[in-house]
Design goal:
Layout lengths: L4 H15 L10 H10 L3 H15 L13 H17 L3 H15 L7 H18 L3 H13 L10 H10 L31 H4 L42
């Protein structure tokens, strides 16, 4: 099943809401409607709906010096508003909304800070990239990396561009701690840094000694040369080809 980027953002937004104990059901949020309008190309309507989301969560009982209950939701609302403003051609308004998103991030609980930061900075970076200002998009991405953003930031177009410029591999999009794919067998994976360590990746580890293996030599006992065995008529010699 193909999952659109809007669906990813919708899921990510709900995760932030849940993490910050926000009552963020889709019917109670303008955010979903704004994303739907954006997907249809109606950035004016998306901007208006995002502003309503900002107004809703800017209330003192939502995010203020007295409570940080929904500060993550407010930060995401501001970054979405910034995105629609930037893509509409009003970069100055987008920068102001971005600054307010940063202010809301300062009140987000520490446990939720990486994910909220990753989404805020990715929204704004991607908006500048789509608007054609790749230099600003890269600057926003780099700032996000210094603010502790999680792996979501590294799914942005700017992240891929920076990786290409620096000749490094792009960071994986999966969040840290994500489970292994269903097809992966954890018991058969080889630890890369220990691949040459026989104590870890020795294929003979735990097997009984073969009769073809030399017996251990006791100290003080002379070692007699082994008598070479005649090749079996059924076994090809090294110079013969098997059929």
């Amino acid at each position: 099943m193909v999952v659109m980027m809007g669906d990813f953002r919708r899921i990510a937004g709900l995760v932030v809401c849940a993490a910050s104990l926000a009552a963020c059901a889709s019917g109670d949020s303008y955010q979903v409607e704004a994303m739907q309008a954006s997907d249809k190309g109606d950035l004016k309507a998306a901007t208006s709906l995002a502003q309503k989301e900002v107004d809703k969560y800017s209330a003192t009982d939502q995010c203020s010096s007295a409570t940080n209950l929904n500060c993550g939701t407010l930060a995401l609302a501001y970054s979405s508003l910034a995105e629609y403003q930037i893509r509409s051609g009003d970069a100055a308004a987008g920068e102001r909304s971005f600054d307010r998103a940063k202010g809301a991030l300062q009140r987000v609980p520490k446990d939720n800070m990486p994910s909220a930061t990753g989404m805020v900075y990715r929204d704004v970076s991607e908006a500048f990239w789509k608007a054609g200002d790749k230099r600003r998009a890269i600057a926003v991405f780099k700032e996000g990396t210094t603010r502790g953003a999680d792996e979501w930031l590294y799914t942005s177009s700017a992240a891929k561009a920076v990786a290409e410029q620096e000749g490094t591999a792009a960071r994986p999009a999966a969040a840290p701690g994500a489970p292994l794919p269903a097809s992966a067998d954890a018991d058969t994976l080889v630890k890369p840094i220990l691949v040459n360590d026989p104590a870890v990746n020795d294929p003979m580890k735990g097997r009984p000694p073969s009769s073809a293996e030399p017996a251990p030599v006791r100290r003080g006992t002379p070692v007699e040369p082994a008598t070479p065995l005649a090749p079996s008529p059924l076994t090809p010699t090294p110079l013969q080809r098997s059929r």
